[in-house]
Amino acid sequence: MELESELRKAMAEQVAGTTATPSLVTDVKRRHRRRRARVQAAAGAVAASVAALALVPTYQSFRAAPAGNSETVRPSNTVSALRMPERPPAPGLPQTPSERGRPGAGAPPKSEARGAQGGGGGGPRRPGGGVVDGLPRWITYLPSGLAAAAPCAATEAAGRKTTTCRWVGDGGWVEIVLVKGGGFTGPQDLMKSTGIPGHATVRGMPALTGDHVGSGRQVCWLARRGVGVTVAAGGQAAGDLMRIAEGVRP
Predict the structure, then answer these.
(1) Mean pLDDT across 24-38
(2) Distance between CA atoms of 250 and 180, rounded to whole angstroms?
């Protein structure tokens, strides 16, 4: 304890005549502000460096590619976005000088060229069948060697529209009857035969088959609600009865 007392006494005697200057507090505050300004300046420099590094890839992506770059070369056969393709002149109109200079100017349309290559025939050609004049679009197959006996006839009665088409030839005959209307209960409403009908399917729909009145065979079915079809055939064409029926798509 005596040593500690002596040390305290010596320290007190050493600082007894010492006093703090009036500007000590002001100097401490000034130094603190300077240190804080240096820290803020350093932080700002670091942030600017990071932002500059982040902008380098963006600048590289927007930089114009050099001439001759494969990514910027367009195919020579593409149409410019600022230039609309010119329309071909109407038939019978004179061509302008610019149109005469283009390759293929004045050539006939492709459809006409195909018609010229097809040669004679004079009618639409369907798969598996011959050339048949006036064949309706909803009939896709007929045996070859048949020709229309007359244009398809349409009649209306009792709220139903009936279209009858008939073809004849050396290979026999074919008659297709299309009936549109309401009140159908099944293919039996279309069957005109006194014998016992047989059962079949046409394009997944139930159908009835039987002898046709007079000669030949027939098949009847409802293609969809309100649409009935009867296909009859005689002679050699009777052997293609079901194939003809499958080709009827009203």
Answers:
(1) 88
(2) 10
